[in-house]
Amino acid sequence: MDTSALALRTNPIPNKKNLGDSYLKFQFGQQTPAVLSMSRATEVVVLPVDRLTPMPNMAPFVMGLINRRSRVLWLVDLARMLNLPGVETNVQHYNVVIISNESMSLGVIVQSVEGIVRLMPDSIHSPLGHVSSALVPYLRGCILQETEILLVLDAEAILRYAQQ
């Protein structure tokens, strides 16, 4: 038996594309790139504006309610929730990312969805000193790239804030 062939079969060369954790990359607000763990982002929906039911007397970032797969979900403008300029309101549809944990689901409106990226855990750095201190409670960290700072959002913190 060829031992080198056996070594290749039992110890495959790692595929660099598969390294790292999966994240959904999107823009929220006008020029704010961010990622969210795919373990918490359950669905991306293009929602016609007329499918949204506005609710009176709510916080300014709460856009209303939607019915999705026989479940009623709150829909929030993520940028406005984090005290950034909100998404355009004179549009025909919203880009919505459904995030969830064991106890609740929430729809967050984002500017645009860019796809799935893989990131190594050691590439995530502390956001302190790189972003506004008001954003820090909602971040797991940030990734410093050549052309931008990529915010790594904490879905659990966003869900907790939305429950208040």
UniProtKB/TrEMBL annotation:
InterPro entries assigned: CheW, CheW-like_dom_sf, CheW-lke_dom
Domain of life of the organism encoding this protein: Bacteria
Domain CheW-like: 20-164
Any one cellular-component term (Gene Ontology): cytosol
Residue ranges the record marks as coiled coil: none
GO biological process: chemotaxis; signal transduction
Name this polypeptide is given: Chemotaxis protein CheW
Source species: Symplocastrum torsivum CPER-KK1
Lineage: Bacteria, Bacillati, Cyanobacteriota, Cyanophyceae, Oscillatoriophycideae
